Amino acid sequence: MRVLVLGGDGYLGWPTALHLSDQGHQAAVLDNFARRGYDRELGVDSLVPIEDLDTRVAAWEEVSGQRIASYAGDLLDADFVYQVLREFRPEAIVHFAEQRAAPYSMIDRQHAVYTQQNNVIGTLNLMYAMAEIDPDIHLVKLGTMGEYGTPNIDIEEGWLEVEHNGRKDRMLYPKKPGSFYHLSKVHDSHNLEFGCRVWGLRVTDLNQGVVYGQQTPQTIRDPRLATRFDYDAVFGTVLNRFVIQAVLGEPLTVYGTGGQTRGLLDIRDTVECIRLAVENPAEAGEFRVFNQMTESYSVSEIAALVAECFPGPVQVDHLENPRVEQPEHYYNVKHTGLVGLGLQPHLLSDTLIESMFDIVAANKDRVNLGALLPTVRWRGGLKNG
Ligand code: NAD
Prior knowledge:
Layout: E1 2-6, H1 13-22, E2 26-31, H2 34-42, H3 53-64, E3 69-72, H4 78-88, E4 92-95, H5 102-105, H6 109-133, E5 138-144, E6 159-164, E7 167-172, H7 180-199, E8 202-208, E9 210-212, H8 238-248, E10 252-255, E11 261-266, H9 267-279, E12 287-292, E13 295-298, H10 299-309, E14 316-319, H11 337-340, H12 353-363
Parallel strand pairs: 1-2, 1-4, 2-3, 4-5, 5-8, 8-12, 9-11, 10-14
Antiparallel strand pairs: 6-7, 11-13
Helix pairs in contact: 1-9, 4-6, 6-7, 8-10, 8-12
Bound molecules: nicotinamide-adenine-dinucleotide.
């Protein structure tokens, strides 16, 4: 299939494009390189060096014989989006191209506005382009498990059967997200469901858990194919950050009690989930939701696991939680959709923490220690007086 990967220069978009290309799909990537710009703004960099997109694409052609077309541009530029869809004529689009860090969206008003504008308007431009050029394109859109928050009831896959005053309906599952970033994904989900209902678009919304790991069978074929590995308190996701802190001999920074439970998945499962969703499209008019996670752990359990696997002493520090979130809560998530399509998860218990230690050790001179501690507070972005 012809598959366009939006955000194809990012942590997950690049390995996904490689995986799809390796599986025989004709892949193209689109990116505006905003992510590399946030690095410059925050004074951080991927722990593992990454090449620019042209070098990556050329390296993949050299290694695999497969060509990945690349488009440099912004989803906020509607003319560009229309032009790419007309030129590449995708059968499926995988949409990763959003600002994805909750702390970044909570820095201040400007960053909240940027995040919601970038994410919501970019997706809206894409929806219009699809509806006007080819409504048959299947959109695989990355959402997040953070859209649901931590309700005190079971989390279903996107939809909830509701009985109210003796009547029943199937409603979008109610959302209680924890940041302006997560809210942008909720707004996207509602816009997309509307597009399916009104224009007959076909969409799969993947509510993805927190991803860990840095290597896939394709990225390890050449160092020029490496994907990014973030460790800073703004973009570094929790398990990746703990692994890096352990290797550097820095304390693992658990926010608050560490009782916050989150859904997780291995980067190798992310790319496979996308392939499964692409190859098994939603029906015309269907807004299909999968919870893309394989298991849940509390932040304290993740810290304990990293400490247990690391062959040396590890200190765990409990910092005052910069976020506003429930310290302890119920968390029971349905996630059978992707397994039903054939996903065979890599679980954390029998997986790669040890191999991540080696990746970090090889690059530890690149770390900016000052970036490890949280500076963004959920109530700190308000300028009162
Ligand atoms: P990333 O920031 O590494 O990649 C996103 C890419 O999109 C970047 O390369 C960026 O330059 C590009 N981009 C952003 N705005 C754009 C625009 N307007 N036009 C064109 N390109 C644009 O993020 P990631 O970790 O690869 O995450 C990808 C997606 O998966 C995001 O939507 C994110 O919300 C979702 N997700 C990620 C995780 C995770 O743990 N990494 C968890 C849940 C969901």
